[in-house]
From TrEMBL:
<keyword id="KW-0812">Transmembrane</keyword>
<dbReference type="InterPro" id="IPR008511">
    <property type="entry name" value="ROH1-like"/>
</dbReference>
<keyword id="KW-0472">Membrane</keyword>
<protein>
    <recommendedName>
        <fullName>BPS1-like protein</fullName>
    </recommendedName>
</protein>
<keyword id="KW-1133">Transmembrane helix</keyword>
<dbReference type="GO" id="GO:0016020">
    <property type="term" value="C:membrane"/>
</dbReference>
<comment type="similarity">
    <text>Belongs to the ROH1 family.</text>
</comment>
<dbReference type="Pfam" id="PF05633">
    <property type="entry name" value="ROH1-like"/>
</dbReference>
Length: 352
């Protein structure tokens, strides 16, 4: 896997501000140790599976779908772990509740932004359909209409999604949320915070790649430092190095689009566009037909990839929302935290 020519300074260049959650002196039982090891080994496996085997996998919709599946899996893993360590919500420290809800709310916001960008790209597919319809028409005005649709598609793809600009504060706070609260005299609490840290590192890292892919800018791409004391640290570092390195190579090449399926469509459009400036010459008819067929196939691949990714993002959104509602329901029944405070956190912050 290729690396950037100039070493990129880590996002937290002053060192890792995230203190490793020590379990020493917390009377960690063999059962709790086994649960923690299983959780971290599972997370390491997910990270290794996500590590692309080929440069072409990076920034592809199929890889992004796999990444979102990993996020869904880790959220389910943490839910299972909470049940297995037998730590009822009534025993949670308010700081732990804040951590769980705060990260969930911010991720709900981010999911909405991602969904809006996927929908915008899918709108661009309509212009491609117009192009193909006109190129397959027998009308003498087919090229004029096709050129107009190509121009509409190019302008649409080149436009920016204002939601990315509007969620910068949410994004910054999402990164800040990696700094976990201190836990005293609770082996189960420290285990929970350690596990949450792993989930959040994967989540923030994947979201940074998604934001980079959709915006075409490396400003949101993060380099996180993870202590080697975590069983999944090496798998994460390998993944981050490979993916971030390839992304920076792609962006440094000056490409207008960075999503692989979108780039494939753009390449065919650029090849086809000069042919439809005027009537296609007889000598070019075969090349014209081949390019049109190629555009139809690649446009379909893009559309199908976006549809599959939409389902995964929606699924992740529902997991987050269901988790928040379940926690709030338990808090109401147990009276551990006021409904007004919790409902203000969750229902008042999600971007609409």
């Amino acid at each position: 896997m290729s690396r950037p020519q100039v070493p990129h300074r880590p996002f937290f260049h002053f060192g890792n501000p995230f203190q490793m959650i020590s379990l020493k002196g917390s009377q960690m039982t063999p059962n709790l140790s086994a649960l923690l090891n299983t959780f971290e080994e599972t997370l390491a496996g997910r990270l290794r599976k996500l590590n692309p085997k080929d440069n072409n996998d990076v920034l592809s919709l199929s890889w992004m779908k796999l990444a979102m599946e990993s996020l869904c899996g880790t959220r389910n893993d943490i839910k299972t772990l909470i049940a297995e360590i037998d730590l009822p919500v009534s025993a949670w420290d308010e700081k732990w509740i804040d951590v769980y809800l705060d990260i969930s709310v911010k991720l709900l916001d981010i999911c909405i932004v991602f969904s809006s960008e996927i929908a915008r790209l899918n709108q661009g597919h309509l212009f491609l359909q117009f192009v193909l319809h006109n190129l397959n028409s027998t009308s003498s005005k087919q090229f004029i209409r096709a050129r107009s649709s190509v121009d509409d598609w190019k302008n649409h793809i080149a436009s920016k999604n204002p939601r990315f600009e509007n969620c910068s504060t949410i994004w910054d706070k999402l990164v800040e949320s990696l700094d976990l609260p201190k836990v005293k005299n609770s082996a189960k609490g420290k285990l929970l915070m350690r596990a949450m840290y792993g989930v959040k590192v994967l989540t923030v890292s994947v979201c940074s790649v998604f934001a980079t892919a959709f915006s075409g800018s490396a400003s949101k791409l993060l380099d996180l430092n993870v202590a080697e004391t975590y069983m999944w640290a090496q798998a994460f570092n390998d993944l981050q190095s490979n993916v971030n390195g390839e992304i920076r190579n792609v962006l440094s090449s000056g490409r207008v689009t960075v999503l692989k399926e979108l780039e494939a469509v753009d390449g065919i459009v650029k090849h086809l566009y000069p042919m439809i400036q005027d009537d296609v010459a007889l000598a070019e008819e075969e090349a014209f037909k081949n390019s049109t067929s190629d555009l139809e196939r690649k446009a379909q691949n893009l559309s199908q990839g976006l549809d599959l990714l939409t389902k995964e993002v929606d699924g992740f959104f529902q997991i987050l929302l269901t988790g928040c509602k379940a926690l709030l329901s338990k808090l109401r029944s147990g009276g551990a935290v006021s409904d007004q405070m919790m409902m203000g956190n969750v229902e008042g912050q999600v971007v609409r």
